[in-house]
Amino acid sequence: MPTYTAPTDDYKFLLHQVFNLQNQANVPGFEEATPDLIDAILDEGGKFLSEVIAPLNQVGDREGCVWKDGEVTTPPGFKQAYDQYCESGWNGLTADPEYGGQGLPHVLGTVFSEMISSANLSFGMYPGLTHGAYEAIVRHGSEEQKKLYLPKMVSGEWTGTMNLTEPHCGTDLGLMRTKAEPQEDGTYRITGTKIFISAGEHDMSRNIIHLVLAKIPGGPEGIKGVSLFIVPKFLVNEDGSLGERNAVSCGSIEEKMGIHGNSTCVMNYDGAVGYLVGQKHKGMRAMFTMMNAARLGVGIQGLSQAEVAYQNAAAYARERLQGRSISGAKNPDLPADPIIVHPDVRRMLLTIRSFTEGARALATWIGIQIDLAEKHPDPQVRKECEDLVALVTPVVKGFLTDAGFESTVMAMQVLGGHGYIREHGMEQFVRDARITQIYEGANGIQALDLVGRKLPQGFGRLLRRFFHPLLDFIQENMSDPAMKDFIMPLAKGTAKLQQATAHLAEAGMKNPDEMGAASAEYLRMFGIVTLGYMWARMAKVANERLAEGAEPRSYYENKLLVGRFYMQRWMPDVSSLFVKMAAGGKVMMSMDQDAF
Amino acid sequence: MPTYTAPTDDYKFLLHQVFNLQNQANVPGFEEATPDLIDAILDEGGKFLSEVIAPLNQVGDREGCVWKDGEVTTPPGFKQAYDQYCESGWNGLTADPEYGGQGLPHVLGTVFSEMISSANLSFGMYPGLTHGAYEAIVRHGSEEQKKLYLPKMVSGEWTGTMNLTEPHCGTDLGLMRTKAEPQEDGTYRITGTKIFISAGEHDMSRNIIHLVLAKIPGGPEGIKGVSLFIVPKFLVNEDGSLGERNAVSCGSIEEKMGIHGNSTCVMNYDGAVGYLVGQKHKGMRAMFTMMNAARLGVGIQGLSQAEVAYQNAAAYARERLQGRSISGAKNPDLPADPIIVHPDVRRMLLTIRSFTEGARALATWIGIQIDLAEKHPDPQVRKECEDLVALVTPVVKGFLTDAGFESTVMAMQVLGGHGYIREHGMEQFVRDARITQIYEGANGIQALDLVGRKLPQGFGRLLRRFFHPLLDFIQENMSDPAMKDFIMPLAKGTAKLQQATAHLAEAGMKNPDEMGAASAEYLRMFGIVTLGYMWARMAKVANERLAEGAEPRSYYENKLLVGRFYMQRWMPDVSSLFVKMAAGGKVMMSMDQDAF
Question: Do A170 and B417 count as a contact with CB atoms less than 8 A apart?
Fold first, then answer.
């Protein structure tokens, strides 16, 4: 059975040494997040997830969720583990103390979300979706709604969902048919069918707060006529107690490739009572709040599967005796060497690990920016951080899930035939990771968001938030010989990315299809360069620590090795991706659609 | 439910126009393979596979094989379809007429193996393994063994298996423990456990002829002491009738990621009667005959899954209405445009298709070389073809399965969330394709075979069989303006591949680990350049046909478009792969194994 150990050392390195969270103590919410508290959270949280949540991952996959007469039973052990999770207070880690949360920085939620997803992606989705619904209500709901719903969502007693997709509309929400008819009492009656609703129905919580997009009849056509509603499974009385059952039900659950432990529901709304969140017809704005947070979360899910797959592949490679090193036996007294002696096995493992450690740095960096965007006292800093987060969100979602999935495939390969057998659990990581490239906007949509919306926004203002500090960093470290292996490839990759950006702006101006034709390669270039930047920053700190004589030396030395590997084996793709995108869209657009 | 249409037009183009099979009529076995006969086989075979075998693919996945008390039941419909398959004579297409086969060129078997695997990979494995066992016996068995076993294996009444892997040894067969004790009557008693035995037990055929590797006690240590045995499930009387049950049984079947319709068995040999094939201790040589054919077959399986996944993704993209073209509505009268208007959807589809059409050309080319290696009247030609096949075998296995798997992932992505749902069948292609990268030697082993065995063989003689005609082709077409888009990238890629080869030879001489460290990238470079060569050859023929005014013009025009796309979006990887491999193995080898 696969195991999971939370990468707490890595997070301590990132939070305390690379991004110096302690320097942000002037930001509200950070003052209490002392290094000691953070370390305690990492250690305790990691232990809980490894010991309680991770062992349920295979059970969840094998048993799955069971639908019967509209009720969904989660896999054995899920409900008990969820209760334990809530009782330990993990659900409200970053939530507002006004609603019972602990008010810790969002970045700790980011950290926790990687760990819970590694331990058990299906399980982590239940609180993850609650958190998304919490965010939408806390930002867009009325005071009354906040007081009524949030405390129990923070405690975990109630969970949440997001209802967007319909059978005929996924990406294109303007085609939505679910309607919300206004009632005299100010409520609405919601009617329609939503599909692919994660955690739409289950037995983990006493109530489920559905956030539902629907159209109020007579409103504007298409996407501009969409509003957001709270539709509780059980209506909530004024005192917070549960009232009668609402007219929403789960019609069936999907049989899927993976994430069997999470229920993916068809939700039928038959005149269910709904409460408008925010303004009429402004539902997409509120939904985007949820979606952007969710997109970052899904990116981190991609990383999470790569991490746990790596850990188990590395353990296998150290233990499995098979064949001999081609440069001479390394274990002459045993019948064979462990397969980790083989360069190609190391190549696979280091390809994954140089991705996960870089991706973890990116997730942490962006997690901190989200906090600063919300809470920094200087409005200029807030705006800059918000811009950066907006720019990088599709990159985190797209690149971390694509490379995360590829990592699980590679980790499975390390086990050879045993990787294909279910009991080893490696193929589950592949099947589970696969959804992350799809939900919360398929990765093609992320690429289009990056090139079509984020790049032109503010005449490139968002881009400057990224390139300026990156170019400054390169400049500052250019002459440091200890940084040469990092700065040279990073500088080259950054130059290519700038060139690609200019190319895209020019080509896209003439023909928008040219932006679409280049978008996937551009997003990947952006992702690879961004992780390169993260690696260079980590390398700088590792070099400094080694120079200071910090212990354990091997931690910093290995960090530099893995970083060098990244520079050697990931960065070169930037150049070929540029050549591909520069080929343009003419050939692909000239084929007749019936000829495909 | 997914559907499958055999790519018969493509095969006709390849066999008749690109590789001119009719020009080989002086080779025994080819004289009867007239274009009309070939076309009839393609059309009839394709129809049978689409109508009878493909509809069982999802059933096989859902129901799987069921083990009970040592017996294995295949999914509903498999047995009846297999009977129909045998009755129609498809099983003996390329087998020797002496044993009831039709004696047609091997290349038609290659073609048929792509089609049957696309239709239903799990199903196709049953006759595929029989074919492998047939090959081993026909080449290495005694006259008596051939007469006794082959006719019923050719008719399909009996099936075959290959038994190599044991729980503690997969890649490293020298560690094998299964033993074969010689008896006074000249037979052997086989004792041991084999795992991962595809089609090891099932209800499709009346007898199963296991080919088993085992060690005769007292023989040489390691791989040099391995012998090959025929171990029938039911002993066969001299008159060919079935005798008593042999002491071989199926202990269990594996729960796997995919290919659920094929039984993957633990086989227990408890003093089972076995018959030596070929010489004592020379089992690996005989096994390699089977394995090389099987490796090519598995490469083609990779292609096959890409093809069927492409067909279904393209159909979805043409039909699914969602969103609008970013360059303006293409279907203004409908609520949305089909998603095929989006450049990124086209990019995904053409990435797959430019791979499958190139891979199909490669499979066909190599299929013909296998025939010529066996049957050409000129021994020099035979040797040259044999060399080329030996060189390219690991490339076909490794590259066609890696890119084939990646293609299924991309095809699934075209369907968005619907791709993740089992009923659409797209995720099954991903799960089924995944095994092809693993079995018959994981792709890391293929890469090592290429750089460690095939490259140095005969001081680079094998390489010359590949590079000479390729360089000649480039030279001949360099000045043709209609070929410029093909020849320029091909020439560049070929130069890089030559440079990589020289680099590898030099670095590997100093330190064998350097070969291992570069092997995966080198194999992929080799694969991409080889498909580039195939595309250039197809482009040349398509240009010629267009110049002649051949119909339908759109076929040749689309061929050129898809080929151009390949040159633009696949070939650039050759350069970045070279940069990666040139970085060497120092970093990866210097990390302590406990630090992974």
Answer: yes
Q: B334: nearest CA in chain A?
A: A175
Query: CATH no. for residue A13?
Result: 1.10.540.10
How many domains does chain B divide into? 3
Is there a contact between B392 and B530 (Cβ–Cβ < 8 Å)?
yes
Angle at CA A250, nearest 5°, toward A246 and A251?
Answer: 125
A451 CB contacts (<8 Å, ≥6 apart)?
Answer: A504, A508, A515, A516, A518, A519, A522, A523
Asked if A440 is an active-site residue, the reply is yes
Contact assignment for B322 to A170 by CB distance below 8 Å: yes
- Same-domain pairing of B137 and B39: yes
Q: Name the percent of chain B lying above pLDDT 90.
A: 92
Residues of B in contact with A427 (CB under 8 A): 256-257, 431, 434
B92 in a structural domain:
yes
Q: Are residues A466 and A537 in the same domain?
A: yes
Comparison of pLDDT for A326 and B529, the residue scoring more? B529
Neighbouring residues of A552: CB distance < 8 A, sequence distance ≥ 6 = none
- Please say which residue of A282, A302, A321 terminates a domain: A282
Whether residues B25 and B113 fall in one domain: yes
Q: Name every chain B residue with its beta carbon within 8 A of the beta carbon of A405.
A: 409
Mean pLDDT of B202-227: 95
Taking alpha carbons only, the member of A9, A15, A14, A18 closest to residue A544 is A18
B104 and B210 together in one domain: no
Q: Are residues A514 and A457 part of one domain?
A: yes
Q: Is residue A534 included in any domain, yes or no?
A: yes
A contacts of B564 (beta carbons < 8 Å): 587
Collect all residues of chain B within an 8 Å Cβ-Cβ radius of residue A513.
325-327, 343
- CA proximity to B530, closest of B457, B441, B482, B463: B463
Distance from C-alpha of B60 to C-alpha of B75, rounded to nearest angstrom: 5
Same domain for A128 and A233? no
Nearest to A565 among B317, B431, B588 (CB): B588
B124 and B241 share one domain: no
Q: Report pTM.
A: 0.97
Distance from CA of B382 to the nearest CA of A (A): 32
Kindly tell me if the per-residue pLDDT of A290 is higher than 80: no
CATH of the domain at B181: 2.40.110.20
Yes or no, beta carbons of A579 and B594 under 8 Å apart: no
**Residue A533 and residue A493 in one domain:** yes
Q: Is residue A290 part of a domain?
A: no
Residue A548 class from Cβ within 10 Å (0-12 exposed, 13-18 middle, 19+ buried)? Answer: exposed
Please report, as a single letter, which amino acid is at residue B534: M
Nearest to A434 among B165, B420, B423 (CB): B420
Best residue in B166, B346, B511 for a mutation probing chain A (most A CBs within 10 Å):
B346
pLDDT, tens digit, for every residue of B515-533?
Answer: 999 999 999 999 999 999 9
Provide the residue range defining the domain that includes B506. 453-585
The residues, ordered by sequence, that sit 6+ positions from B541 with a Cβ below 8 Å of its Cβ are: B13, B17, B18
Structural domain includes residue B351: no
Of residues B317, B422, B443, nearest to A596 (C-beta): B317
Q: B253-268: per-residue pLDDT in tens?
A: 999 999 999 999 999 9
- Residue B564 to residue A580, Cβ atoms within 8 A: no
A421·B255 Cβ contact <8 A: yes
- Bond from prior residue into B97 cis (ω within 30 degrees of 0): no
Model confidence over B8-51: pLDDT tens digits? 999 999 999 999 998 888 888 888 899 999 999 999 999 999 99
Q: Taking the CB of residue B449, how many other CB atoms lie within 10 A of it?
A: 22
- The residue among A232, A261, A282 that closes a domain is A282
Question: How many Å apart are CA B170 and CA B191, to the nearest integer?
Answer: 18
CA distance B445 to B457: 17
